[in-house]
Amino acid sequence: MLMEVKNNLLYFFNALKVSIKSAMAYKVSFFIQALFMCFNNLFFLIVWKVILGNIPTQTDISFDGILYLWSISTMAFGIAYFFFGGINKINEYILNGTMDSFILQPKNLYLNVISSKCKFSACGDFVYGLVIAFIVTGCDIPKVLLMLLFSVIGSTFFISSEVILRSITVWLGDTNSLASRYTETLLITFSTYPENIFSTGIKVLLYTIVPVAYIDYLPIRLLTTHFSLPIFIGIIIVSTLYMLLSIYVFNKAMKNYESGNNMSMKD
User: Fold this and answer.
1) Phi, psi (5° rounding) for residue 205?
2) Which of 112, 186, 204, 260 is the most exposed place for a label (fewest CB within 10 A)?
3) What angle do CA 27, 78, 217 make, to 5 degrees?
């Protein structure tokens, strides 16, 4: 068991190294993508600053709260898509028969597929979120490290959602549009808006089907009010359940996957 875990970790780091080397072959493109993503995120923070400067001061929404939201969510997104960019290629692999080349390899299929690509612009999201974390905490290292931990946990929700929604391509046909809309319109959008602007019905949705509460709202509550061990454990349990569900759906989909005529093998 331990040997299998070790081998999977070694494979993951080797795959990551290859992806980074590939990105560095086009350094200008890599840095432009990352920089553009930073500026894109900065624009939205400027908009929030303007909005908060023109609403009554009695509101429960603070700019520091917005900074926490953007920091954790952008770092979580960056971790998910930079390290595991293959998650948004699963439906493509299924449809064009590329999945055959992964199945033929004696490696963990789930890890092999999700780590097969890097989304280089996501590096910009992570760096941006990390800079904001230092700013909003006043360079409080323990708190920044805790925010990084919450971002790692939050990244599992992005990964799990993509894997589930793209794996069901096996049964429903191409689900690229469905997965993109869910991630971009629901997960990303809701994770950058404060919880207290939503009605009770929407909040129920954000604690269940669209698990934004576990990416942002509960972690921020632990960071800015008081740390609650039961809530922290609850976040870990929910993230683990989502990840296990994604593994189950992926494996179930692979059992129903029909091999294509792509005879090439992945290096």
Assistant:
1) -60, -40
2) 204
3) 160
Q: Which one, of 169, 161, 154, lies nearest residue 218 by Cα?
A: 154
Read off the pTM.
0.83
Tokens linked to 180 = 């993109």
Alpha-carbon dihedral sign for residues 226, 229, 196, 214: positive
Structure tokens that stand for 60 in this block: 């429960």
The closest alpha carbon to 224, from 165, 137, 109, belongs to 137
For residue 100, which amino acid is it? D
Q: List alpha helices for the chain, DSSP H.
A: 2-24, 27-52, 63-83, 90-96, 99-103, 109-114, 122-137, 141-167, 169-172, 176-181, 189-190, 200-206, 212, 218-224, 229-256
- pLDDT, tens digit, 9 for 90 and up, residues 225-236: 888 999 999 999
CA 208-113-2 angle, to 5 degrees, is 90
Burial class, 175, CB count within 10 angstroms (exposed 0-12 / middle 13-18 / buried 19+)? buried
First-last CA distance in the chain: 25
